[in-house]
């Protein structure tokens, strides 16, 4: 018996010696990746060339899409900005996490420290964390009366409360780690990415993985574009609003390219998962302001790609957005995925790839999108759900299950039913043709809506009648 045990020990030692290098290499492959979440502001589903826009010049994002997976059915978690951002960080639908509306300066709504963010969880895993760009998750920005980015897990931050002021050109309202920066020279997206690059080069510990959040202002108003990015659109010289908007999207694309070049320069691209998306659909009508050419309102020229509705709607044009992910060795280049994903999925995705367990003391609405990276379906415990507090009364709440989507009015007494596989433009209400499905989905939406509203703080009740 002893000889057998000794023989087994000897054999085990021999196998370890033979397999050690291989096991070590496997362990290196399983090291947690770096993670970048790049968020555009008011970028429509049809605003990029790789999403079919015949005019827009977005070579860096087009190249990025060819290197990873492009989602055809990617959604923001809300039709406006602050709620979408809260869902990205918490994995929880906005009314549930409390950030139910866009947050005006001085407003009481804020992302509470009782919410658990991806940055906090990743810090516990040994990640270094950085946020640069628009924050828009509190009304009392840079005030001790409400939590700031560092209270939500960010080691380093450069941010504005909402928009760049006075515009994207030479902004004056950035704050770095609690200290006002003062006037800056340049344009917002390149300045924000420049801060990210400086952090990657000089501030982070190169031995630790990193989580980098880059949230640009472009192409949200007040738009101001560098002339060199308007130059490719000279055919619109007599339409200054188009020049400004399209140049602004190219300005965003340029900044994104600078960050990707820096990852390449530092040899980080192969070990970094990069996620790109937008916080909601495009502002305005898409036609600009014919009564005031060249004004800020004339610069709202974003495209929904033909989808119904725009920003603030829970129709597709308000919530369906670009979504692209690159993860060398894990995502096949050139993949196109039709699997529906949503902004709240980013939280669960980040947790999975970093090997961090999801919180088990609260509802997590999002699900990991890792299966969708290769076109596989996502199993969801909570259906996709949207509630936009300032949307039009007939599209206040929506829910999607499979190819079916139900849209409810403000008091959930009237419902529209669409099959998005056959009718992504939501032109035809099918509730009369499929009464059973319409009734069942409406009932589930009512129950889910009540659950969400009952879970978070009741800040929303003060504005429920709007």
UniProtKB/TrEMBL annotation:
<keyword id="KW-0732">Signal</keyword>
<dbReference type="GO" id="GO:0046872">
    <property type="term" value="F:metal ion binding"/>
</dbReference>
<dbReference type="InterPro" id="IPR017850">
    <property type="entry name" value="Alkaline_phosphatase_core_sf"/>
</dbReference>
<feature type="domain" description="Sulfatase N-terminal">
    <location>
        <begin position="33"/>
        <end position="356"/>
    </location>
</feature>
<comment type="similarity">
    <text>Belongs to the sulfatase family.</text>
</comment>
<dbReference type="Pfam" id="PF00884">
    <property type="entry name" value="Sulfatase"/>
</dbReference>
<keyword id="KW-0106">Calcium</keyword>
<feature type="signal peptide">
    <location>
        <begin position="1"/>
        <end position="27"/>
    </location>
</feature>
<dbReference type="GO" id="GO:0004065">
    <property type="term" value="F:arylsulfatase activity"/>
</dbReference>
<protein>
    <submittedName>
        <fullName>Arylsulfatase</fullName>
        <ecNumber>3.1.6.1</ecNumber>
    </submittedName>
</protein>
<keyword id="KW-0479">Metal-binding</keyword>
<feature type="region of interest" description="Disordered">
    <location>
        <begin position="274"/>
        <end position="319"/>
    </location>
</feature>
<dbReference type="InterPro" id="IPR000917">
    <property type="entry name" value="Sulfatase_N"/>
</dbReference>
<dbReference type="InterPro" id="IPR024607">
    <property type="entry name" value="Sulfatase_CS"/>
</dbReference>
<dbReference type="InterPro" id="IPR050738">
    <property type="entry name" value="Sulfatase"/>
</dbReference>
<keyword id="KW-0378">Hydrolase</keyword>
């Amino acid at each position: 018996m002893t000889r057998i045990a000794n023989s087994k020990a000897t054999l085990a030692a021999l196998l370890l010696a033979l397999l050690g290098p291989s096991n070590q290499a496997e362990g290196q492959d399983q090291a947690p990746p770096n993670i970048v979440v790049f968020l555009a502001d008011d970028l429509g589903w049809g605003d990029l060339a790789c999403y079919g826009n015949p005019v827009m010049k977005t070579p860096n994002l087009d190249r990025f899409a060819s290197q990873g997976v492009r989602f055809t059915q990617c959604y923001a978690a809300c039709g406006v900005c602050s709620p979408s951002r809260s869902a990205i960080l918490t994995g929880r639908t906005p009314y549930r996490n409390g950030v139910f509306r866009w947050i005006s300066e001085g407003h009481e709504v804020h992302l509470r420290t009782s919410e658990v963010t991806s940055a906090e969880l990743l810090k516990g895993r040994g990640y270094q964390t950085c946020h640069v760009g628009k924050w828009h998750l509190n009304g009392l920005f840079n005030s001790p009366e409400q939590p700031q980015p560092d209270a939500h897990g960010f080691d380093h931050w450069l941010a504005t409360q909402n928009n760049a002021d006075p515009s994207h050109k030479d902004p004056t309202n950035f704050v770095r780690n609690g200290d006002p920066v003062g006037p800056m020279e340049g344009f917002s997206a390149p300045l924000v990415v420049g801060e990210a690059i400086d952090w990657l080069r000089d501030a982070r510990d190169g031995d630790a993985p990193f989580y980098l959040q880059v949230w640009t202002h472009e192409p949200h108003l007040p738009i101001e574009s560098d002339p060199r990015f308007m130059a490719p659109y000279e055919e619109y010289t007599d339409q200054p609003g188009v020049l400004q908007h399209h140049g602004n999207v190219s300005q965003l694309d340029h900044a994104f390219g600078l960050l990707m070049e820096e990852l390449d320069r530092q040899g980080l691209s192969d070990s970094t998962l990069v996620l790109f998306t937008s916080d909601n659909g495009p502002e305005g009508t898409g036609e600009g302001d014919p009564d005031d050419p060249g004004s800020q309102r004339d610069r709202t020229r974003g495209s929904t790609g033909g989808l119904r509705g725009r920003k603030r709607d829970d129709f597709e044009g308000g919530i369906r957005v670009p979504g692209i992910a690159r993860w060398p060795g894990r995502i096949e280049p050139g993949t196109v995925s039709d699997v529906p994903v949503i902004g709240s999925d980013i939280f669960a995705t980040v947790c999975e790839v970093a090997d961090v367990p999801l919180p088990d003391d609260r509802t997590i609405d999002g699900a990991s999108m890792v299966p969708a990276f290769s076109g596989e379906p996502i199993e969801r415990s909570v259906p996709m759900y949207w509630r936009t507090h300032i949307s039009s009364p007939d599209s206040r709440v929506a829910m999607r299950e499979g190819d079916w989507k139900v849209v409810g009015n403000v008091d959930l007494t009237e419902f529209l039913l669409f099959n998005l596989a056959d009718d992504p433009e939501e032109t035809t209400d099918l509730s009369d043709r499929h009464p059973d499905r319409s009734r069942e989905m409406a009932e589930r939406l009512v129950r889910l809506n009540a659950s969400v509203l009952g879970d978070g703080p009741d800040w929303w009740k003060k504005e429920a009648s709007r």
